[in-house]
Amino acid sequence: MTFLRIDPRLVERLRDALHVVIFTGAGMSAESGVPTFRDRMTGLWARHDPQDIATPEAFRRNPQLVWDWHVHLAESVRAATPNAGHRAIAALQDLVQQVTVITQNIDGLHARAGSREIIELHGNLLRLRGFRDDDGRQEGLRLARPPRPCPLCGARCAPPGAWNPDPGLSLAGFGLAAGPVPRCPKCGARLRPDVVWFNEMLDPDLLDQAWAAMENCDAVLCVGASLEVEPAASLPFRALECGHAVIEINPAPTALSALADASVRGGAASALPRLVESVWGSAQGPGE
Ligand code: NAD
Ligand code: ZN
After folding, report:
1. Spacing, Cα 254 to ligand 1 middle (Å)
2. First CA to last CA across the chain, in angstroms?
3. From first to last of its 288 residues, what are the pLDDT tens digits of the chain?
4. For atom 22 of ligand 1, which residue has the closest CA?
5. If phi over 0 gives left and psi between -120 and 50 gives alpha, with beta otherwise, what is residue 234?
6. Given ligand 1 and candidates 36, 39, 104, 234, which is best to mutate, with the most ligand atoms within 8 Å of its CB?
7. Which residues, at least 6 apart from 145, have a Cβ–Cβ distance to it below 8 Å?
């Protein structure tokens, strides 16, 4: 493995860090076979622009089309395995007192690589929940006033009296699989992937946790994120404002590149193990 040439003072700062945050975007998983939305070479997204189809409006208009698109995406996520970059991040847990992964990815690959403290800002593709309509146009059994959320799927769509009273119901048997859009067996709401779609808000609690991690850590590695979509894009800049060491890993420059303490031009799967090896001396991950 060739070592990265990094300013020795920066290496010292990283070695002294007690809490390292890894902030990752879609580029983190590109070499695992999950393409970024921007790199459409594979044709996976060729027919539909994700910004038109991964939205609550599109689901309301044509739930089956949106479901099918996510089934297709889930196939590539299920077929993917964590790459050497994911494994290097997991290995860092043995070398640094605290490692927090903050990811915009919905593929669950950090957990599969062995990372333990993970904030999934955009949710997880392979988890389902009930579709909620913020405008009060509820799915499933339509009612004027939404009652308390369904205990199974979280949707507010039916009064308790209309819910299926069978106590043995669960969502365990449901997944992103080809076929009609499933409905919650308790309340009748359509099920959807538990991800943050375009035009949806991030979970404020997760955002608070991510913000706090950026403020309280000692160093940040920002990997494969274009930093073009707020509010997540501001997170690494907050760490810079706080005076923490910030290193970027991305084959293409971003708004962070000129401000970061170091900008490594390379793919996550090769550059991350080299960075971990160069600074901390070991990058052997636990693997899957
Ligand atoms: P993005 O904004 O994170 O941009 C992708 C970035 O990855 C770009 O800056 C690109 O230069 C960089 N990149 C490409 N190849 C790389 C590599 N091998 N190593 C490191 N960096 C690399 O992501 P997006 O594609 O615009 O997607 C927007 C949102 O959609 C994401 O934040 C995410 O929520 C979701 N998404 C998730 C996945 C996933 O879970 N794997 C995949 C696609 C999109
Ligand atoms: Zn339900």
Report:
1. 12
2. 22
3. 666 778 999 999 999 999 999 999 999 999 999 988 766 545 555 667 888 889 999 999 999 999 999 998 899 899 999 999 999 999 999 999 999 999 999 999 999 999 999 999 999 999 999 997 653 344 445 555 556 788 999 887 766 667 888 989 999 999 999 999 999 999 888 999 999 998 888 999 999 999 999 999 999 999 999 999 888 899 999 999 999 999 999 999 999 999 999 999 999 999 999 999 999 986 555 445
4. 27
5. alpha
6. 36
7. none
Strand extents, DSSP E, the chain: 19-24, 98-103, 118-120, 123-130, 191-195, 219-223, 245-249, 262-264
How long a stretch of residues is the chain? 288
Which tokens in the block code for residue 231?
Answer: 């509010």
What is the spatial distance between Cα 164 and Cα 188, in angstroms, rounded to a whole number? 9
- For ligand 1, say whether the CB of 101 is within 6 Å of any of its atoms: no
Q: What tokens appear for 268 in the block?
A: 């996550």
Q: Which two tokens stand for residue 70?
A: 């996510």
Residue ranges with strand state E in 117-244: 118-120, 123-130, 191-195, 219-223
Which residue ranges form the domains of the chain, and what is each CATH number? 1-33+82-122+202-288 (3.40.50.1220), 35-79+126-195 (3.30.1600)
Classified as helix, coil or strand, 191 is strand
